[in-house]
Predict the structure.
Amino acid sequence: MDPAQLLITQNRAFPSLEYVLQGSIQDDSAHLLKARLQGLCDNITGEVEQFDDHEIVHTLRIPGASNVSLRVRYALDDMPNPIYHLRYVASAELDKSQSVSVRQFHDCCVTKNIQSFLQELGFMYDHEFFAKGDIFRKGRMKITVAKISSLLERNRSDMNPMQIRRPLTASCFVEMSLIGSMHDDKVADEMKTFAEQLKPLISLEKIDQKR
Amino acid sequence: MVVAIVISLPSGSFKSPAEAAEFYLDKLEKGGAKKTRPFQVDLVSYTPLIPNSKVVHVLSHSEYPASSFAYAEQSNCQMLVADNTFIALMNKLKTLRAFEIRLQKMEARGTRLEYQDFLINLGTVNQSQTTKGLILEVAYVPMDETRDGYCLIQEFLQSFLNMTKQTIQRLITDQLSNWLRSLKDKKDSEYTPSITLLQYLDILLAMRNKPNE
């Protein structure tokens, strides 16, 4: 069968799962963690990959059910024609036996009219933030060390949001994540083992969002 | 780069749309067009279960296998082009009870032909087991200037299928004629694949609403 035909006919509704461990580190110690990560991760010789993203969260209220949020993300260094990334992240599954958070995950790249499209669907603007930092890879794992900042005031017409950013805290947000297809205990072990190597600089934990 | 015209072909004088498809296919092949592979366009419509929302039509086309095209009904919003995983996202919203699939899926299936720089997709439109009509897409690949491409495709239809200019003008969708009209006072008339899919949407929606024969 021709590959194009194969792509269109195959079942595209495969579920993805995101395995996550999170933590934070104070700004003055962040460089130590970055140095450790640079040593441990795959990008030993190369330059550290950096990112500077803007994420806008839109929420849909469903009567009689929980709300749904979709996240629109784009890289500010891609301006003026960035690729928009649409993401759905469910709340973490309440599975006590898992040592990492597991959440359902769907994503796709979309064109720039995504925000007005979501509004047509009934989604409301919820909140937005900026994440700027470094990204490290170790095999299938991805570790981000990011400074999270918010907008001082919401001003859509201002095309240069750099000046009006305000850091939320005096620490960096650290997230270790891995996208897998189904429940896989090996993944959790792999992540736990790697997190262990980052101690005592940082303790990456399974965060219970409901708490 | 592509400019394309999508029309629904009349099949009134034939016994069935399938027979009409054979006839047109034969005509195209006699003219020198070569069969390449099957073609398929799907339309799935999601009806909202929540207030202040809109029906979302999601189209996929075998010519653009990695993409999905989404359109919110009765909106000023342009067509959203997304990765084909977008359909999984919509299905997620369906399981979260924000949308449901109330309207039946429409499928256009048929043959893809090539003639030099032209690409022809000819197929029948089905709604579950019922055949609703015949659809033809003629695309001129190496160009994205709408007006010039439109003229070339018009000539193609005239010579291959003996259509008159008037017939073509009657058969083209409102989407395309509105787009052509909007170009009159614009210099920039870059055609995008979304316009092709909008034409498909127009035809498939009209066929869905048409009573069965």
Q: What stands out?
A: Chain B has one domain: 3-209. Helices of chain B lie at 17-30, 86-95, 146-161, 165-171, 174-182, 193-209.
